[in-house]
Amino acid sequence: MDNEQPHQELVKCVVVGDTAVGKTRLICARACNKQVSLSQLLTTHVPTVWAIDQYRIYKDVLERSWEVVDGVNVSLRLWDTFGDHEKDRRFAYGRSDVVLLCFSVTSPVSLRNCKAMWYPEIRRFCPQTPVLLVGCKNDLRYMYQDEAYLSIFRENGSFLRATRKSDLVMPDQARAIARELGVHYYETSVLSYYGVNEVFENAIRSALMARRQQRFWMTNLKKVQRPLLQAPFKPPKPPVPEIHISPSSYDNHMREMWIQQAHTDVIFVAGSVGFTAHRFMLASASPLLHRILMTDFSNELNTRSSSESSMVSTFGEATQGDFNDDTEHLIRVDTGKPSRVWEQLKRRSSCQILTCDSNRRLDVSREMDHPAFLSIRVQQCEGLDHRGNPSSSLQTVITLSKLITPQAMNQVLQFMYTGTIDSQYCELQTAPIGLLLEIRQAAEFLELSDLHLFVSNVHSREEFLNTELILHYRKDLKKRFQDLCLGHGLFSDVIFQLDDGLYPVHRALLMSRCDMFKAMFSGDFRESSAKVIMFPGVAQDTFIQLLVYLYTDDISGTVSYLKCLELLEVANRLCLQRLITLIEQKVVEQLSVRCGTDGDVVEHCLRLLEPCKLHNADQLADWCMNHLCTNYNKLCKRSPKLLRQLHPENQEYLSEHRWPPVWYLKDYDYYEKCASEREKEERPLLKRSSAGCLCFSSKARRSSAHMSSTVDNSAAIATDAIDVDIEVMAEDGPGPVPVPEASNAMDM
C-alpha cells in the first residue's frame, strides 16, 4: 500500500453483504464524512464499487483514512465488494485485517444470507480474520411510518415499495445470529450518522487485537482495547402535532350581511334613495345612532301588541331610552301627516312596501333638530320576504338632510359593516375630491371618528396608515358587539330556548356567520318565521361561548380544557370548522402549560381522545394520542383501567406507536447487563501485600508480630520492677539480693 507512514498501522477492511443493503453508502459516509438526505437514500439503487483507487485519486479521502485509536496511528483502507452471490471476491479477501458482514434491518433475507452464504465464504478465504456483523439502515426501524418517508413513495408510484413492519429485523434477532457466528454486532445509519465512526473504530480494534496476538513484542499495541459495546439507538421523540387554524371569513361574512340585507329593520332616506340596515349594527358602530335608535315612543302610542314594537326588548319589557341632555333636544314630537319623501319611498318598488292601515298599524314620527337628520319614523309595514311571500315588519325610517348625499351615505354604511370603503375611494389618484369631502362630512355628522380619519389619510396621501386603522375599528366593533348585543341583547329579533333558559340573538348576523343558521332562517322551515326557536341539548353557558365566536370571531377567555366537549359538539353540529380549530388551539395551549408546570394531563388526554374523534376535532385527538404515546409507561402505571376502556383500535395504536418502543427497551436492558458484566471482568484484582512470603500469609505475620511486641513490653515492665526493689533495699541497708522474687517477676 502506498502513502504508508512509519509508526503507523495499516488496516485493510473489507465490506461484504447482499446487494442494496447499504455497503457503499456506509463506506462513503465514513470516507467522505457526510450525511445523506432521505431523498438521496430512496433513489433507485445503482450497484457500485468503492475501489481502492479512491485513495490515490482524492487526497482528502486519504487524509480522512488516518485515525488514532487507543493511542495507535492507523491508516484504514476500505474495500467495497459486489453483492452478487456468484461473483468471485477472493481478490478482495486477500491480506484483509477485518471483515464487515453487512445486512439491512429491513430485509430478513439478507440476515439469513449472512449465516448461510457470506460467513462460510469469509471463513473459506479468511479463516483467522475477525468479523463484525453490521446492521445497516437502522433509521428505517422507526421511520417506516414517517409521513415524509411515505410521501416519497407516493410520488414515485410503483417503482419503490415502502418498508412494512413485517420487514423489520429487531436487534435481538440479529444479536442471536451474531451469537451463533461468534462475532460482535453493531448497527449503523447513514441518515442520522449513528454508529458510522463507531463501527469502524471497533473494526480497527478487532484487527489490532488479532495483530497483537501474532506480534506480542510490539509495545504500541499493548493499550489497544477489545471492541467496545455499542449503546442502543434511541429513536427520536415524535414531534408534537401542530394545530393549524382555519382562515377567518369574518370580514367576508360582514360584507355579505351588508350586501344581502336580510331581516333589516332600519331605512335611511337620502333624497329619493333608501338604504336598509340593521339597528344592532348601527348602534354598535356609531354612538350617535345608538342614542337615536334608543328613542322611547311609548308616550305617543295608545295601544300596540308585543310583536309589533321594535322598542320592546326580547323579554317583553320596554327598553329605556338612554338619551342625555345633549341629544334629547334633537327630537321633536310630530304626529302629523307623513312627509313627502316617505310617501315617495312607499311607492318605490325596490323597497317592496305595501299599503298599511294607519288605524291598525303603528305609525309614529318625530322631527329631529340635527343638521344631518330631519325626522325619525317607526311604522309597521307589509312587504315581501326573501321567498316572495307577504310579510309584516316594523321599520325605523330615518330621513337624512341634504348635507348627506346618497353616495356618501352608501360609503358610510359600507364602512360601518366592513371597516372600509370602495377601493376606488381608498387612493387619492382614483377618488373624486368632492366625494371624499362628502364622506368626511357625513362621518363627522354621524360621529364616526375612524371613518373621518380614514378619509383624511386618503386626502393627505397617507393611505398606509389606514391598514392599522381598519384593524382598530374592527376590534372596537367586536368589543361593542360583545357588550351591547351579547351582554344586553340590544335589538334582538329572535329567542333561542335552551335547556336551562332563554337567550336573545340577531337573525341577520347568525345567517351571515353560519350556513346552518342561514338555511334555518331562509329555508322552508318552521324556524324561519318563529320568534322562539327550540335548541335542545345545549346549555346556556355553551350557547354563550358559541355566540361569542359568531359575534367576535374569537373564543379567548371562554374555553377551558375541562369543559370544551360541549362546545365542540355544538360546533360540529353547526359545521363551524374554524371554531373547532380555535377550540383545539386553546385546549392544547392550556394542556401544554400544565405539562410545563409538572402537571399530569394523561387522564385529561384519555378523557378527550375519543370524544374529539367523534366531533371531528382531529387535530386535538392527534395531540392527545401523541402525548399518550410518549407517556405510555406513565399511562400504564397510573390509569390502567381507563386505558382498557378505550376502543381496541386506539389501544392497538398506542401499543404500536409507544415511545420509547419495546425493542429499544429490550435492547437497552441487554446493553446494561453486558456493560455490568464487562465492568466486573475488567475490574482489577486486589494487590497482594508487599510483606510476607509464599509460605505465610500477611495475616499470620501480623499476629506473630503482635505477640512478639507484647512479650517485649512485659519483659520491660518486669525489669523496671526489679530495679525499683534493688534501690529500696540499698537504702535500708546491705542484704541479700532477692533473686528468686526477681525470677518470679520475670516469669509473670
Automatic annotation (TrEMBL):
Residues 264-425, 492-559 form the BTB domain. GO terms for biological process: ameboidal-type cell migration; cellular process involved in reproduction in multicellular organism; developmental process involved in reproduction; hemocyte migration; melanization defense response; small GTPase-mediated signal transduction. One of its GO terms (cellular component) is endosome membrane. SUPFAM superfamilies: P-loop containing nucleoside triphosphate hydrolases, POZ domain. Keywords: GTP-binding, Nucleotide-binding, Repeat. InterPro entries: BTB/POZ_dom, P-loop_NTPase, SKP1/BTB/POZ_sf, Small_GTPase, Small_GTPase_Rho. Pfam families: BTB (PF00651), Ras (PF00071). CDD domains: BACK_RHOBTB, BTB_POZ_ZBTB_KLHL-like, RhoBTB. One of its GO terms (molecular function) is GTPase activity. Signal peptide: none annotated. This is Rho-related BTB domain-containing protein 1 isoform X1. The gene is LOC117653425.
